[in-house]
Write the structure tokens for this entry.
Amino acid sequence: MTDSRHQTVSVLALNPAVDISYEIPQLIADQKVRAVKTYHHAGGNGINVARALAELGTPMHCCSVIGGESGDLLLRLLGDSLRDGHRYFQVEGETRLNATLLQKNPPSQYEIDSLGPEVPAAVLNDITNCFLATCGNGIAVLSGSLPAGVPEDHYRRLAEHIKAQGGKAVVDAHGPVLHQALEAKPYLVRLNRYVLEMTVGRRLSNVEEVVEAARDLQQRGIELVCISLGAEGAILIDNANSYQCTAPRVRVQSTVGCGDALVAGLVAAAHRGESLQAMLCLGVICGSATASHPGTELFTRAEVDEASFDLEPRTLDI
């Protein structure tokens, strides 16, 4: 258990989005389909993590990039959900508009991520300085894709700065951005099973193989590695042991934002100085509750506080 109750939590959102989700009966090629329901939410990985932390009552700061009329819409959708903890930097161009198609028959989910606006070097410098200042020696969340104008080693360099000033970097990324960030030996890395397979270059057919691959990552000098497994819950690994918490059964409406909610649960519990098992349980509850909502609608604090899930993390001894 690590006592981090005095620390702040800062979230970097370099590539936010307005998430538009459509519930449709069936997607048919060359045919117009009418949405049964349409949802608009403020999204992107960093914004989702910040929203979830605010919902959990965790003191946090969020630094984001906003562009154009779609950026204005994102701010309206956010409302006062981030309270006074949001500092945004405006750029030319338009904040991303992402689309999710939630098909009823057969049940399927299709996601389209658009490109965000380019971030000029001067703005990147300003938001980086703001983020590092608000983070201090606390927990810093680096989550999501990088827009044009941001080098792929940016998370690595930030993680190194954060460690040097006594903070703890949490990384949720993939591809070259993740590979670079791992070199900085961050405090916590969150991957899903597919990203882990792409990272290690092989298929992982069972939980034991997932844990062994995650253990190899952890032994590179990373304090905690979390692997999300969908209905199988998630795994959390430290230097001493590994734990699995199976997800409670819920009626899944959308999986968009579940990984971000998981990260927020892990970070919120770490901020309170709770044990690894408690971190894992809260993360899984937040992710599972989010899956029961449509679009990118996240869990509510009431759902977490009133959760009747009897979750008991299993020690894997791997």
Residues 1-6 have pLDDT under 50 and may be disordered.
